[in-house]
């Protein structure tokens, strides 16, 4: 294909979620021609992969997409699924991105001239630069042991769960206690279903503390401005599990100990499967204690902020466990317990198999600095902790997108230089 091909574009954006549309906004603002490729429909995840009672776990005021801050009547509330979809539909209309929906990107590879071949289900393109905005939550994780479960036990991933009524009658085993697992377990529990929950290592935090939403306190403390380079864990923070809490019914804590008092059965980490019996590691007590330690630690940090700033606030408090496991349950006979469904809430993994360029580290993770890949002309956007806590959320993706758009513009305007190996690259003037 020659450079004169009508399929030559300055920038190809892969992914039509909020990240892809955010950078499209800034590229269009800068007058940079581009295409956004989306294998399904723009922001389909919010429509198709969220349960009926799903809501944000951060206040609405944190929704701040490019040119589209939260525009509803309840900034301190938590939008429900349909409200989120409507908010994003309005954002999409404002951006009016050059979208190619229903088009899968099959391969992106480097050309001899330094540009990229972009092979899609709708033909081939050549792009000078590529933005990978397909996200970090692409492929549902389901353990191989799931293949050995009895056929009469229905299995689904958290992205497939909709409501308790859609499941067969009987008890439900929820595996994983991150944000999705804890909220789905609560949804089933409130509906009167018997829930067995395999508790992982996810931390938790308070919803409200000393008169404010904890997110508001953390924003005042500039936590959300902290970059990954400033975080004590550095890049290790990208592997952290999100704290479980909920915005349901105006927002509240999720306390698994309280659920246990009310009849939910808690276990440690899922360990294996022996016939119709599921086994667990004896990690429940440690997991609950660690989640509470983080909970109290966040509140203690808020206490210090209040004291140092001289802020008038309600008195401090420390969470005291309302329940302790009498023993560590290590097995569950599915049939004897009447378990008819298992919901896997153990997360997702990204899928970059189509990106055939050396832009990854030894562990297979994108190698980048603030989204600018080590491979010239490649950028990542929308990943958790790409730059800060908000990078994979509505609160920080706009800043990341603007930063990358500026880098793209700089490269397009820079003089061209040929490396000794003959591969073309653009370098900044001076």
TrEMBL record:
Keywords of the record: Oxidoreductase
Keyword ATP-binding in annotation: no
Domain of life: Bacteria
Entry protein name: Flavoprotein involved in K+ transport
One Pfam family of this chain: Pyr_redox_3
Top-level taxonomy: Bacteria, Pseudomonadati, Pseudomonadota, Alphaproteobacteria, Rhodospirillales
């Amino acid at each position: 294909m020659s450079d004169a091909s009508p399929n030559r574009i300055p920038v190809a954006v892969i992914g039509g979620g909020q990240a892809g549309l955010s950078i499209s906004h800034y590229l269009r603002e800068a007058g940079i021609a581009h295409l956004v490729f989306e294998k399904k429909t723009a922001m389909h995840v919010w429509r198709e992969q969220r349960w009926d009672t799903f809501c944000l776990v951060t206040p609405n005021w944190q929704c701040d997409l490019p040119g589209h801050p939260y525009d509803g009547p309840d900034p301190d509330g938590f939008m429900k699924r349909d409200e989120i979809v409507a908010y994003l539909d309005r954002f999409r209309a404002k951006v009016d991105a050059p979208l190619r929906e229903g088009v899968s990107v099959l391969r992106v590879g480097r050309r001899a001239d330094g540009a990229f071949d972009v092979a899609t289900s709708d033909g081939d393109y050549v792009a000078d630069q590529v933005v990978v905005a397909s996200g970090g939550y692409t492929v549902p994780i389901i353990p191989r042991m799931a293949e050995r479960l009895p056929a009469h036990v229905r299995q689904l991933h958290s992205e497939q769960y909709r409501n308790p009524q859609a499941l067969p009658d009987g008890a439900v085993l929820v595996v994983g206690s991150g944000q999705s697992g804890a909220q789905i377990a609560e949804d089933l529990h409130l509906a009167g279903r018997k829930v067995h929950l395999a508790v992982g290592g996810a931390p938790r935090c308070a919803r409200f503390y000393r008169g404010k939403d904890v997110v508001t306190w953390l924003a005042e403390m500039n936590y959300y401005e902290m970059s990954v380079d400033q975080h004590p864990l550095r890049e290790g923070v990208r592997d952290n599990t999100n704290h479980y809490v909920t915005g349901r019914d105006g927002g509240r804590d999720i306390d698994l100990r309280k659920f246990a008092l009310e009849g939910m059965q808690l276990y440690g980490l899922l360990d294996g499967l022996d016939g119709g019996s599921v086994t667990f590691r004896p990690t429940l007590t440690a997991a609950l204690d660690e989640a509470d330690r983080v909970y109290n630690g966040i509140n203690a940090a808020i206490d210090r902020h209040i004291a140092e700033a001289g802020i008038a606030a309600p008195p401090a408090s420390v969470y005291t466990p309302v329940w302790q496991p009498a023993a560590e349950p290590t097995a569950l006979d599915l049939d004897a317990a009447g378990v008819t469904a298992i919901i896997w809430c153990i997360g997702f993994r990204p899928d970059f198999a189509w990106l055939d360029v050396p832009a990854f580290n030894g562990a297979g993770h994108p190698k980048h600095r603030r989204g600018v890949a080590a491979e010239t002309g490649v950028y990542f956007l929308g990943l958790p902790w790409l730059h800060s806590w908000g990078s994979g959320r509505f609160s920080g993706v706009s800043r990341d997108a603007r930063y990358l758009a500026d880098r793209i513009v700089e490269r397009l305007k820079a003089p061209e230089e040929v490396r000794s190996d003959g591969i073309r690259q653009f370098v900044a003037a001076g």
